Input
Amino acid sequence: MAQGGAAALSQDDTGTRELTMSIKRNAIITGSTSGIGLGVAEAMAKSGMNVMLNGFGDAAEIEATRARLAASYGVDVRYNGADMTKPEQIDALVADTRTAFGQVDVVVNNAGIQHVSPVEEFPIAKWDAIIAINLSSAFHTSRAAFAEMKARGWGRIINIASAHGLVASPFKSAYVAAKHGILGFTKTIALEGAQHGITCNSICPGYVLTPLVAAQIPDTAKARGISEEEVKRDVLLAAQPTKEFVTVEQLGALAVFLCSDDAAQINGAALPVDGGWTAQ
Ligand code: NAD
Output
């Protein structure tokens, strides 16, 4: 067994099987003030990890989330508002986490934005922002945390990609490019970490009803000339054979599993959690 990250399945009073970490791990989750990132942060805190939250939002709400996670799960939860378009702020986020917790064991690259537009009208600034936040930020966090993971012989890098890392949809050129790019980045980092106890994987969710998805419904309706209800039924869930949205809890559980030693041989993978979307 590698030097740590040992996870054990235990049964609580309600009979729920939970994955808990026997060694205290410290995780950064980018974009964890909302949606999937918050779901992953909550699952990681629940498993016993210390958590560094990141992302934008109302300061009082973020502090309430931070305090709730810390109190509910008895772990250290901090917040750093680094902007994922700013490499120097990303470096400071990793350094701040190291100072707070002693070391950085897990990095979850989750922060992401979307813009829906035909390519000929796609705003250049939106393209640049999507590539910076959804792709380049994962390079910057990994670059900053990799040496210490290597030195300790243990690390986990988890990239929240998308089904759009595997297949495309029209009007999402920047997003699809960034998500396909992150799968290539994942494979490269997986190879570089393979003999150092570090794994790097991508999780590829289908549609999750988070603020990011809710916000693109009006734009998609406009781009396709259909109603918002039709977007949900005929565009979003049309591709998802289960006809159900993926939940943040399901994604959090997979991310926690990837941090276990049972997952030590899962490396460089793109793991779809999409109700069968990309099986078609
Ligand atoms: P969301 O809008 O609910 O959350 C996005 C998070 O990223 C927020 O915390 C936000 O503050 C943060 N963020 C945005 N710009 C940032 C910046 N410049 N610096 C730091 N933080 C920033 O979105 P979500 O749906 O939870 O998406 C999270 C990730 O999951 C994204 O990478 C997205 O592409 C991916 N994803 C989402 C879905 C889905 O259906 N919701 C599906 C597949 C993949």
The beta strands are 7-11, 17-21, 26-29, 50-53, 77-79, 106-109, 155-160, 198-205, 270-273.
